[in-house]
Amino acid sequence: MRLMPRSGRKRNPSVRAAEAELHTFTKRDCEKLFAALRGEQHIALAVSGGSDSMALLQLAAQWAKGSVKISVLTVDHGLRPEAAAEANKVAAWCDRLVLDHHTLRWEGMKPKTGLQAKARTARYDLMGNWCKANGVKFLLTGHTLDDQAETVLMRQARTDTAESLAGIWETADWAGVKLFRPLLGQSRSDLRAYLKSLGQPWIDDPSNLDTRFERVRVRRLLADETKPDQRRMELADIADKAGREARALAAATALWINGQLTSYPEGFGTIPRAGFCELEPELQRRVLQQLLQIYGAGNRAEPGELDHLANWAVGQENSRRTLGGAVLACRQASLLIGREWARISAVPTLVPDSGEILWDGRFLVKATSKAQVIPVGSLQGVARREDIPSFVQQSLPAVLLGEGEPAIPHLGLGRGVSAKFIRYLR
């Protein structure tokens, strides 16, 4: 189960004062900023060339001083003609600091709608995959106090949940890579003053002026405040308080699930309905969210969807619902949840030369190279295993080895193949 990350740290007044007066960071300041990385030998930085990421680059280099290997990653989305030249400029700046630089390119057709969100996903996927391929556990980003304030203000218009109002977390997880944001307590103006003191230029992205994007509009709204710095601090404090509340709720959720969930190797689980009905509504939502992430497609559901699902689970018996790529089945004494097999791609997944593949984000399948993995539901005439629900059986991995019958480890069919459910291990 994924651990809940910590929220951003409160800003250090002494660091702020030092920046404002001297535009510098001391060795001790840097040690505090990067304390979470103590003992790491190799880290990666996400650097676009903007002021925030360039401040991160300079501070990380000042902190590491050659004792920690730093790899700098710049993503060229291919969305602007200047992007390639900007990546080259970041590479040149890195060369001056004797740091490795890698440009990662987002290939293929670009979406026509939801561009910012999809570009963000593509960016983190590219960098996350690079980190995993190179044995790097931590990817650092240059999110600042300004980003935190903007995020909280945007979310206040949509929701009042603690987890949402916590804004940007200081640490998080992206497909197995740890994201770390050491500058969440620092303002953009102070970081730019620091860069000026070093004579370090940066790149201004024109999209940061495009009012089609909500964040740009919110940024302008904050800048027009009577006391913008004070307002940003107030919003950052809201995030800090909400983060503490969210962590407490996350701990209570994990405690309940660890004590009540029965997880099966076939990739489904059950919880007692009586115990679930006794939970406070907020905990019910969180339990359901966790179950959806464990047994469904791994996506997050909207609060309203979880409310409807919780009400259904409390009041119904012997019926089913689907949400987030999962099937939930209400029974008299229990609530059962497993993968919705129709939401699993029917396109065969090829086992690589390593002989291992994480299939559907749930099962670690080991088979011969070039074997194909598909859901059992895509096959015809597979005998039913009576001790598991039919929809669960259909969501299990089947391995096509060649001309013979498919190997389905959970049904005892075939040899030389294994499949282990790994999303949640008790």
Number of DSSP E strands: 17
Percentage beta strand: 15-25%
- Count of separate DSSP helical elements: 14
The N- to C-terminal Cα distance equals 9 Å
The residue ranges in which pLDDT falls below 50 over 5 or more consecutive positions are 1-9, 17-21
Biggest sheet overview: 6 strands, mixed
CATH architecture descriptor of the largest domain? 3-Layer(aba) Sandwich
Radius of gyration: 24 Å
How many independent structural domains? Answer: 3
The CATH homologous superfamily of the largest domain: HUPs
What's the shape? globular
* Oligomeric description of these chains: single chain
Helix/sheet category? alpha+beta
Helix content: 40-55%
Give the spatial strand order of the biggest sheet.
Answer: 3-2-1-4-6-5
Q: Quick one: CATH class of the largest domain?
A: Alpha Beta
CATH topology of the largest domain: Rossmann fold
Label this structure with key terms:
426 residues; alpha+beta; Rossmann fold; Uridine Diphospho-n-acetylenolpyruvylglucosamine Reductase, domain 3; 5-stranded antiparallel β-sheet; 14 helices; 40% helix; disordered N terminus
